[in-house]
Amino acid sequence: MKGIVFAEFLSMVESQYGLETVDNIIETSKLPSEGVYTSVGTYDFGEMVTLLQHLSQRVGVPVDDLLYAFGHYLFQSLVKTHPEVVQSYNAPIGLLYSIEDHIHVHVKKLYPDAELPSFKILEKTDTSLSMVYASSRGLYRLAHGLIVKCFEHFGTSADVSIELLNKKGTEVKFDIVQHGA
């Protein structure tokens, strides 16, 4: 997993729970990287799992809820660091529809060895989208948070239903219906 994701996660933890919590979960986790991440470095996904587990224990929030919150945070961060990508869309459905063909292409230019989830579009209208998320890491709750925050960014909201296509959550169907479009 790319270091930029770890750095953004720790930044979220600091902004929501304080620097003391960041220090605590890093120290408690006994990470091979010692919690030092460069944006272009690649680190073991197990470190993220460990950080999430220790954060969950410390703050009393389930891991899935932390991943969802991280999705929200990560979308805001992406807008700040790469506004040109988001500004090229005038609606959330268009942005989400273009994840594979535009967003991930942009990410791969910055981080060629990044292991990104895939999003297979099943159906699209002007106000709805059905897609399958696939990732060996099963971070669909992070993707869910990104999706919801995407709609908020565009000043709207959506109903997002989730269907796990396997028990591990490595394949998940998202059905999204925008409100008030």
List its traits.
181 residues; alpha+beta; H-NOX domain; 2 domains; 4-stranded antiparallel sheet; 54% helix
Sum this structure up briefly.
The chain is of the alpha+beta class and 181 residues long.
Can you give a write-up of this model?
This protein has 181 residues and is of the alpha+beta class. The protein has two domains: 59 residues; 88 residues, Alpha-Beta Complex (H-NOX domain). The protein is 54% helix and 16% strand. It has eight helices and four strands, in the order H-H-H-H-H-H-H-E-E-H-E-E. Strands 1-2-4-3 form a four-stranded antiparallel sheet. Helix 4 packs across helix 8. The N and C termini lie far apart (36 Å).
Task: Indicate the topology.
Blueprint: H1 3-17, H2 19-29, H3 45-59, H4 63-81, H5 83-87, H6 92-97, H7 99-110, E1 118-124, E2 128-134, H8 140-153, E3 158-164, E4 171-178
Antiparallel strand pairs: 1-2, 2-4, 3-4
> Largest sheet, order of strands side by side?
1-2-4-3
Write the CATH fold name of the largest domain. Answer: H-NOX domain
Largest sheet: 4 strands, antiparallel
Instruction: Give the averaged pLDDT, no decimals.
Output: 92
